[in-house]
Design goal:
35% strand
Length: 183
């Protein structure tokens, strides 16, 4: 994916935020975002016990910026990252599966329920349609009602169930594989 040009996201409450690719200078802001999201929810793979190093974040930003098939974007409220989107083609050189991408979306609790997730999911679909990707996939915990409703609204189908996918607060949680096919 080429670098995503900065654009504006307007929420359903008429607030406007900046959507853009991450730069290396964003590593510290990204580290803060991941720490905050880990405090707010268990619906991501980020957890309180592990802080991602600035070097690891810088490496990910650099790797994604050099990729022709991946995107790593942030939604910014001034100097604060409030949402993150990644879009990745895991095997872009494999002839049988280069048409499949995976993605993830995270939005800080304070900024949820205002349409940012919908705007980011629209970007995911635009990435797919502007490339050779014809199928996009995500995983969502069965307890994440907000995300399941978003995917349903956009026409995603449940393709499978991953039992006991996570062990959180002494309980196992299942995960759904959701996907959408284009073309």
């Amino acid at each position: 994916m080429t670098k995503h040009l900065p654009s504006e996201i307007k929420t359903k409450f008429d607030k406007t935020y900046l959507l853009r690719s991450f730069d290396l200078e964003d590593a510290l802001l990204l580290q803060r975002f991941y720490s905050q999201i880990a405090e707010e929810t268990t619906h991501t793979m980020h957890h309180k016990e592990k802080v991602i190093s600035l070097q690891a974040l810088s490496d990910r930003i650099k790797q994604t910026s050099e990729s022709i098939s991946d995107a790593y974007l942030g939604v910014f409220d001034k100097d604060k990252i409030i949402a993150v989107l990644y879009f990745r083609v895991p095997m872009p050189d494999h002839p049988w599966v280069k048409h499949i991408a995976e993605f993830g979306i995270m939005v800080l609790e304070e900024y949820s329920n205002c349409g940012i997730g919908s705007k980011l999911l629209g970007n995911v679909e635009n990435f797919a349609m502007s490339s050779s990707v014809t199928k996009i996939e995500a995983k969502v915990r069965t307890s994440n009602e907000r995300a399941k409703a978003l995917y349903k609204k956009f026409g995603y189908e449940i393709e499978g169930l991953r039992k006991n996918a996570a062990f959180i607060n002494g309980q196992y949680e299942d995960e759904l594989y959701v996907a959408k096919i284009f073309k």
